Amino acid sequence: MAQIEPFHVMEMMRRAAELETQGRDILHLEVGEPDFATAEPIIAAGISALQAAETHYTLARGRIQLRQKISNWYQQRYHASVDPERIQVTVGASGALQMVCWSLINPGDEVLLVDPGYPCNQNFVRLAGGTPVLLPTSASNGWKCTPEQIDAAITSKTRALLIASPNNPTGTVMSRQQLTDIARLCEGHKIALIVDEIYGGLIYDQADFSACELGSEVFVINSFSKYFGMTGWRLGWVVSPERFVRPLEKLAQNLVISPPTISQFAAEVAFEPATIAILEQRRQQFQQRRDYLLKTLPNLGFKIESCPGGAFYIFAEITQLQRSSNDLCQHILEQAGVALTPGLDFSRDHADNHVRLAYTIDMADLKTAVQRIAAVV
Ligand SMILES: Cc1ncc(COP(=O)(O)O)c(C=O)c1O
What would be the CATH architecture of the domain defined by 56-271? Predict the structure, then answer.
């Protein structure tokens, strides 16, 4: 436990909550979840499931109806053929990441993780007895790891490489070619490739694609949390190579018995055209917010070194503002009533001179937040 770091953003959230109790109006740019409520058709399906008393466990792998719908989604959206047998429904992408780590890692195994990246991954690797090995990336390279870098980091102990695309906190999107090259390299070294596509669908400048297109050897993780706007329903999935289907099923049986039932019924309408129309509108709103911040933040001293192509985050460089990221976030919270996330949670090398802004508030509030920040920096 001594090696498990707390989520530092929580400190910021705690102070923001204190200020709110004192009557201060705080704008939240620190929260990594969509501001929109779950889309109406999904809520209606959840209510119907409750009214029909669908309140029991399901199979550990999830309802076949949902797994079939996820499979259809890959076919329709990405022209990728994914056998529903390879799909395990999980408790969020968090559940999928943990189960994949436990199914793969033996004590002492190394797992390569991109830095900056989602902080919990290091802890999932540690909890499974593995050692996280960071692959440092830089803005000059679009925050992308390269095959050469991966090749150099691989040792006899390396078991897996985990990449999120789009990435949290940088919003970096890997191209099909880049991931194809990396998949080939991993195959050559016989190490597992895990691609976390939790921000899939939230892509703004290029056509969306899924690592499922790269064949059946890649672990592809996804979630209903972000694009589908269902964070609190705690539902995700993993598409695994065939030989991991049974290990993942056994883990699910033991760890959670089954993923949440009501959420599974609700998620079955997430792929319907009427729902997707709502989600696509929301995606456009995220894009407008991103474009607004890309235009305004540099005038305030927040440098955006590499354009984030997806997710809903901007990882901005703040050297010009002459404070460490923690100090700056505290200052902006106290003086401007705007909560940001210091870089500390996401990176070893870029912690002090970067902050993460989540554009998960509506445009009017975002404009107010920018005005308030401008007034104090
Ligand atoms: C990159 C990444 N992966 C996984 C998760 C876990 O999300 P969930 O468990 O809600 O699906 C998050 C949450 O923010 C994330 O940013």
Answer: 3-Layer(aba) Sandwich (3.40)
Where b means 16+ CB within 10 Å and e means fewer, 183-208 reads bebbeeeebbbbbbbbbbbbbbeeeb
Q: How confident is the model at residue 12 (pLDDT cuts 50, 70, 90)?
A: confident
Pocket lining: 198 vs ligand 1, CB cutoff 6 Å: yes
Distance 375 CA to ligand 1 centre (A): 33
Give mean pLDDT, residues 18-36. 95
Query: What's the rounded Cα separation, in Å, for the pair 88 and 63?
Result: 9
- Residue with the nearest Cα to atom 4 of ligand 1? 93
Q: Ligand 1 centroid vs 311 CA: distance in angstroms?
A: 11
Mutate to test the pocket of ligand 1, among 38, 124, 143, 168 (most ligand atoms within 8 A of CB): 168
pLDDT in tens, 241-252: 999 999 999 999
Q: How far apart are CA 83 and CA 314, in angstroms?
A: 35
User: 169 in ligand 1 pocket by Cβ < 6 Å?
Assistant: no
Q: List every span in the chain annotated with CATH 3.90.1150.10.
A: 9-38+274-376
Average pLDDT over residues 193-203: 98
**Sorting pLDDT into bands at 50, 70 and 90, what band is 4?**
confident
Q: Which whole number is the average pLDDT over 355-364?
A: 97
